[in-house]
Design brief:
- By secondary structure, this protein is an all-alpha fold.
- Helix content is 85%, strand content 0%.
- The longest helix has 38 residues, at 304-341.
- The two termini are 25 Å apart.
- Residues 1-17 have low confidence and may be disordered.
Length: 515
């Protein structure tokens, strides 16, 4: 959730017609909504794709997305550096510098892909006949980083101006367009190439809409070529964000490969499904935190009091919402798995329930990361991600061989705990902003969620499993959670969160009506 700042002070410093509190809250809600929409539509697309395409085609599509995703993430770092950079220069100079750096990275990435594609394709597919369609797929998906390059300039400008709602709105529209076009392509028989073209077409349309809206609003004005200081900050910041972020990007994928190598692809599918399901609510908050907190902290980093308050309220509000979601998922996991994807997937339940505890570290994890990136120290996140990667490589093989998918889930839990602890210590050491006063805001909602989840699972445990049990468990968990939060002293936090959400919703509705 977004930070809360003093209304009077914000108006004086930011010179905005609306308090930064409400701007950030609306943007975070919109960004979180975009993540929810994306996750739901991704599930829909996965179901349709699995029913229409052959397994080898689904695998090739996944490989193509991974390859293009690596190129895209490499190009994303200059934009992050430009958003977090400090300076009085016009936003357009930082945006132009980021676009130029991203273009250079994109050119080198395409050159490397062209030189080594044959070897990479054969390694990924282990079959010469499959490398040809993979090559065709990557040629289509290669347009995505190009489109993202063209969209980067207005996005940097808008984020530095904290005009975040337009970007968040388009983030909601893009997956809707993509999934709609992809399903259409699958129905008319265009196969996985059609899915790739649907992704390209939807991204291109969003880029056109973004540029047209931004130009019409007058948010973009030519301010000359970037100064030497802007170039230096952008290039140096790109390197720091890459060092701090790329290992984390890999960490989110490498554990599946290690589990598969240790206990086989079938068990890996249980682990992977549990991982994705548990991360769904966490990723909603992670996206909102990153989208809002990085530019906000970059703007107020010279005011320690406001930074402390922003972090404290961000962590508290995130836990007040995330903790009950994890508790509900923990309690209802058996019913959800059996009724949604079938009883043959019941081995997903135990690792999924372990991972419900794992994701409770996400708010502190991403708040610490956003603090480092927003204050120009993003490269230091590499220390924590290196620790996580080392733990995954060392712990998963023996624990999986001993306890199966549960061993992988426990190894993931250990890795995330050490990642969060290392990142929080690094953030405190480098900024002196993350402290116990911020971390302890998580204790009340976490304790309330664990207690309410345990009671709901115990009290709503009939012999016959049916949908009624699901609704009983959800209701018991929510009511018990609210009661426990109030008992443990979190009533004021709930009231503040409620007021913030109401204010953001009212402001959002008013803005839409005026538009």
């Amino acid at each position: 959730m977004p930070p809360i700042t003093d209304t009077t002070e914000t108006k004086a410093v930011d010179k905005s017609p609306q308090p930064l509190t409400h701007v950030a809250a609306r943007a975070a809600m919109a960004s979180g909504t975009a993540e929810i929409v994306t996750r739901v539509l991704t599930v829909v697309l996965m179901i349709v794709t699995a029913r229409v395409l052959e397994p080898v085609e689904v695998g090739l599509l996944g490989l193509g997305v991974i390859v293009s995703g690596v190129v895209s993430i490499l190009g994303f770092y200059p934009e992050t550096a430009a958003v977090a950079a400090s300076g009085d220069e016009c936003e357009g100079q930082f945006a132009l510098a980021a676009a130029c750096v991203r273009a250079v990275i994109l050119a080198f990435s395409f050159a490397a892909l062209g030189l080594f594609f044959s070897q990479v394709a054969y390694y990924l597919t282990s079959h010469n006949s499959a490398s040809v369609p993979l090559g065709h797929l990557i040629l289509v998906l290669a347009w995505l980083p190009v489109i993202e390059l063209l969209s980067g300039y207005p996005q940097v400008v808008l984020q530095r101006q904290l005009k975040l709602n337009l970007i968040a709105q388009l983030q909601i529209l893009q997956p809707v367009l993509f999934v709609g076009l992809a399903v259409l392509m699958l129905i008319i028989g265009r196969g996985f190439i059609g899915v790739a073209w649907a992704n390209v077409a939807s991204s291109a349309l969003i880029s056109v809409l973004l540029w047209s809206r931004v130009v019409a609003s007058g948010a973009i004005r030519w301010s000359g070529w970037p100064s030497r200081r802007v170039w230096r900050e952008t290039v140096y910041g790109t390197g720091k964000v890459f060092v701090g972020g790329f290992a984390g990007y890999l960490n989110g994928r490498v554990d599946n490969l290690i589990v598969s190598a240790s206990i086989g692809p079938a068990s890996m599918s249980y682990y992977s499904m549990a991982w994705n399901a548990s991360r769904t609510p966490a990723n909603v908050f992670a996206r909102a935190i990153n989208f809002v907190l990085v530019p906000t902290l970059a703007r107020i980093q010279d005011d320690p009091t406001r930074v402390q308050r922003a972090l404290r309220e961000c962590v508290r509000n995130s836990y007040l919402l995330l903790a009950p979601a994890c508790s509900i998922l923990f309690v209802t996991a058996p019913i959800l798995v059996e009724y949604v994807i079938g009883s043959k997937w019941l081995p997903v339940v135990p690792p999924l329930q372990v991972m419900c505890f794992t994701v409770l570290a996400v708010p502190i994890l991403f708040a610490s990361s956003a603090l480092l990136v927003g204050t120009g120290k993003g490269h230091l996140t590499g220390i924590a991600t290196a620790v996580q990667l080392a733990v995954l490589l060392i712990a998963i093989p023996p624990m999986c061989k001993r306890w199966g998918t549960m061993g992988g889930a426990y190894a993931d839990l250990i890795a995330v705990i050490l990642l969060t602890k290392t990142l929080a210590i690094t953030a405190w050491w480098s900024t002196r902003q993350i402290g116990w006063a911020i971390v302890k805001t998580a204790l009340v909602p976490v304790m309330a969620a664990i207690t309410s989840g345990y009671l709901a699972g115990t009290l709503t445990n009939p012999i016959q499993w049916d949908p009624l049990r699901f609704f009983m468990q959800v209701a018991f968990t929510i009511l018990g959670y609210l009661f426990m939060v109030a008992v443990l002293g979190g009533r004021a936090g709930l009231i503040d969160l409620s007021r913030l959400l109401q204010s953001a919703i009212r402001s959002r509705v008013t803005q839409e009506l005026q538009t």
